[in-house]
Amino acid sequence: MKRIYLDHAATSPLLPQAKKAMLKWLDCGNASSLYQEGRQAKAAIDEARERVSALLGCDFGEVVFTSGGSEAVNTALLGVARANVDPCKNTILIGVADHHCGIHCQEPLERLGYKVEFISVDQFGCANLDHLKHLLTEKVLVVSTLHANNELGTLQSASEIGSICHEVGALFHCDAVQTFGKSGYWTKVEDLRADLVSVSAHKLGGPKGAGALYVKAGTKPKQLIVGGGQEREMRAGTENVAAIAGFGVVAMASRTPNEPAEALRKLLTECGAVPTVPKNVPSLHTHIHIRFPGLVAETVLIKLDQVGISAGSGAACSSGSLEPSHVLRACGYSEAECKEGIRFTLGPETTLDEAIEAGRRIKVATAEMRERRTV
Ligand SMILES: Cc1ncc(COP(=O)(O)O)c(C=O)c1O
C-alpha cells in the first residue's frame, strides 16, 4: 500500500536539492579558519545567508542561523531578556496558544526575574487583541506570538500586533515557522512589523536542525550559547555548514495548490469530521484541523498509520502518548474534545489523487472504529 504523507506542518520531506547541497558540505573546513577550506565554508554560509535574507526580505546581516525554530524562539525571548538593562522593562507577554518552544520560556524567564503573562486567544487560537492591549504597559519588554498557529493553521494579523506593541515601546517577536517560504502569506519581514522573526528549514523541505532568527538592525539578543563570536556574537559554535547550505537552497517561496486540500476537506466532512476552523477565518490553505467527535485522536492516528496515512494532531507527543492539546484548551474546548484534534497538512507535492485516496481510506477506517464502539 502506498503511504500518503499528510503531516507537512510537523516536517516536510527533505528536497533533493537540499540533500545534494548538504552532501557537498558534510566534510568541510571550519568557517572561522582563514585558510582556503575555511574560506570555502564561510562562502557557503554567506551564500545561504544571502538566500535566506532575500526570502525574509531583510539585510544580509540581520539573519542569525540557529539549530532550528525552537532555538530561534528561545534566542528571541531569553536573549532579549538577558540583554535588557532597563529594570523597568520587567514583563514579557507570550501567546497562550503558541508553540511550546515559546510557552516553555516562561520558567527560565521567571528565573531571570521577569513577570510572564499569557495573551488569551479566541476560539480559533488567534490573540485576543483587547487582552493584549490590557496587558501591554510600558513595563513590557517583548511580546511573542505566532504568525500561523501550528495546530489549527489560523493566521494572526502580525502587523496589527506589531503596531500595537510598538506604540508602547515593546519589541515584537513573531514565530513565523509555519508561514515562512509559503507564498501568499507575507513577502518581507516588514509586512509582519516584527523586530524578531523565527523560521525553520525543515518546514520547507530543508534539513531538520537548521533555522534562523531575523534580528532587526539595532536589536541585539544576548547569545544563549556562549563561546566564539560566530553569528555576530549572537550564537556561538562552529557552524553546521551542511545544514545551513541545505537550508539556503530551499529558501524560496513555494505555493501548494488548493485543489487537494479542498477535496480532502470535503471528504472529511462526509466522514463526520467537524472542522475546527470555518472557511471564512483566515488560515493556511494547506492545513485541515478537525475532530471526529467521540473518537480519541491518538487511536484514530494509529488506525490511519495502519492504513498508510501519516497525519498528526499537533499536540505534544512524549513517551509515545499524546497530551491533550493546550491550543484547543486555550480555545475553550472541553478536556475530552482536547484529545480529539487531528491535523492533516499538505505540501507542494501532495496530489489530488492522494488527497482523494486519503479521504477514501479515512472514511473506511473511521466507520470501522465507530462500528467497533457500538458493538
Ligand atoms: C510554530 C512553530 N514554532 C516553532 C517550531 C519549532 O521549530 P523546530 O522544529 O525547527 O525547532 C515549530 C515546529 O513544529 C512550529 O510549528
Describe this structure in words.
The structure is a single chain. The strands form four sheets. A seven-stranded mixed beta sheet has the order 2-8-7-6-5-3-4, with helices on both faces. It folds into two domains: 16-250, Type I PLP-dependent aspartate aminotransferase-like (Major domain) (Aspartate Aminotransferase, domain 2, 3-Layer(aba) Sandwich); 256-374, Aspartate Aminotransferase, domain 1. Helix 1 (16-25) packs antiparallel against helix 10 and helix 11 (259-270) packs parallel to helix 15 (352-374). The longest helix is centred in the C-terminal third of the chain and has 23 residues, at 352-374. Helix 7 (158-167) links the parallel strand 5 and strand 6. It is of the alpha/beta class. The model has no long low-confidence stretch (mean pLDDT 96). The protein has helices spanning 16-25, 36-56, 69-83, 100-103, 106-111, 129-135, 158-167, 189-192, 230-233, 241-250, 259-270, 297-306, 326-330, 335-338, 352-374; strands at 4-5, 63-66, 91-95, 115-119, 140-146, 171-175, 196-200, 211-215, 274-275, 287-291, 309-310, 317-318, 321-322, 341-345. The protein binds pyridoxal-5'-phosphate (PLP). Pyridoxal-5'-phosphate (PLP) binds next to helix 3.
